Amino acid sequence: MQLNNQTGLSKSTFLAGYYLKAPHFLAVYTAALMLFSPWTLGEKSRWEGVERIVVFGDLHGDYSQYLRLLKQNGLVDQRLRWKGGNTHLVQLGDVPDRGADSVKIIRHLIRLQKEAMRDQGAVHTLVGNHEAMNILGDLTYVHPGEYAALVTRRSAKLQRDYHEQVYLDRIKRNPSLAENRSAMLAELSVQYPLGYVEHRILWQPSGEIARWVASNPAVIRINRTLFCHGGINPRGEWLTVEEINTRIASALHGSGSAAENLAMDEAGPLWFRGLATGEELVDRDVVLRMLAFYDVDRIVIAHTPTPGRVITRFGGRVVLADTGVSAFYGGPL
User: Fold this and answer.
1) pLDDT value at position 1?
2) Does domain 2-151+195-329 have CATH number 1.10.10.10?
3) CA-CA distances (angstroms) from residue 113 to 3, 133, 205, 274?
4) How far is it, in rounded angstroms, from Cα 285 to Cα 282?
5) Nearest-angstrom CA–CA distance, 316 and 320
6) Cα separation of 208 and 223, whole Å?
7) Where are the alpha helices (DSSP H) in the chain?
8) pLDDT at 257
9) Confidence check: pLDDT of 301 > 70
C-alpha cells in the first residue's frame, strides 16, 4: 500500500514464572548481549513534506512475503540493500509470531533503517501487540520455527542448564516433585525446547531485540496521516502521540504497574479493533473528533486482517492495511 503526495490513497501495492526470576546464567548472557544493544527511545514521531509513503501491515514471521513486498515497491536492490531513496516505509507492527523468521526480518529492518536514513528516506517500525506479548512474557503464538532458528552448538547446554534451574525452583516450592525427576525433565524438554533460552535472551525486556522494539514508536504522524498498529479508541482518553509512545516504551522496559500498562490494554493503541469493526454510522462523529484532536485527515491501522485488500472506512478516514500477507493468513499481496 502506498500513500502518495500527502493526500491520495492508492493500492499498489514468555518465561513462564521463571522469566521474572531470571536464572544467573541467563542474566549473564543478556548482559553480554546488551553491550551490542544501544537502543533507547528516541525516534521522533512527526514528519512533514514526505512525498512517498509505503505501508506494510502484519508480517508474522513470513520473510518471503516481506521480501516480495520490498521488491514490488522498489525499496531494495538484488542484494536487499535500500534503494527507496527518500521514501518512508511504515511497518505497522506484528513482525513476530505465527511464522518462523521474525528475527530474520527484524535484523533486516534494522539494517534498512540505517541505509534509508543515509538516503534521506526512513523505515518506521511501529510496535504491535505481538511485539509487546513477546517482551512481556506471553508466548502463546510463538512459532516452533522461531526457536529452531536460534539453535546453535551451545543450545543443548543452555537448555540443560535452564531445565536444571527450573527443576530446582519447582522442587523448592513442592518437594514431592523430586520423586520423578526424569518425567519432569522430559516435560521441560517439550515446554522449553532448544532455542527457547536464546529467544528469551533476545526478547526479555533487557534483551537486544526487546530494547530495539522499545526504542520504536507505537504511533507516528506523517504529513496529515496517523499510523498505529491497532488504532486509537475514539471513546477513550486521547493522549498525545508523544504520551502514547512514552507510556508504551516504559511498559516494554518493565516500568510502571500492570494497571498502567498501555502496551497490554485491550482498548489501547496496540490492541484496539473498534476502528475496524465498529458501526460507522454510530461512531462517525466521535471518530472525526478524534482525528481533529490529532490534527490529521486519516489514520492507517493494521491488526485486524482484511479479505486480502486495503479497505477504507468512515469515508476514507480510516484505512485498514493488514491484508493478511503472511502465510498464516493466506499470503495475498
Assistant:
1) 75
2) no
3) 19, 23, 22, 31
4) 8
5) 10
6) 31
7) 24-34, 63-72, 102-118, 129-136, 144-148, 155-173, 181-191, 196-203, 208-215, 241-252, 274-277, 280-293
8) 66
9) yes
Mean per-residue pLDDT of the chain: 89
Rounded to whole angstroms, the Cα distance separating 123 from 111 reads: 10
pLDDT above 80 for 302: yes
Question: How many residues are recorded in the chain?
Answer: 333
- CB neighbour list of residue 122: distance below 8 Å, 6 or more residues apart: 47, 88, 89, 113, 116
Q: Please, is 12 exposed, middle or buried when counting C-beta atoms within 10 Å of its C-beta (0-12, 13-18, 19+)?
A: exposed
In the chain, domain spans: 2-151+195-329, 152-194
The pLDDT of 197-204, averaged and rounded, is: 98
Running DSSP on this structure, what letter comes out for residue 124?
Answer: E
Distance CA 202, CA 208 (A): 5
**96 Cβ contact list (under 8 Å, min separation 6):** 60, 61, 102, 106, 130, 131, 134, 142, 146
State residue 112's pLDDT score: 98
CA distance 248 to 175: 40
Distances (CA, A) of 167 to 91, 177, 187: 40, 9, 10
pTM: 0.87
The pLDDT tens digits of the residues spanning 31-90 come to 334 433 344 554 689 999 999 999 999 999 999 999 999 999 999 999 999 999 999 999
Interval 73-122: pLDDT, tens: 999 999 999 999 999 999 999 999 999 999 999 999 999 999 999 999 99
User: Is residue 259 within 8 Å of 221, Cβ to Cβ?
Assistant: no
The residues, ordered by sequence, that sit 6+ positions from 282 with a Cβ below 8 Å of its Cβ are: none
Alpha carbon distance 86, 125 (integer Å)? 16
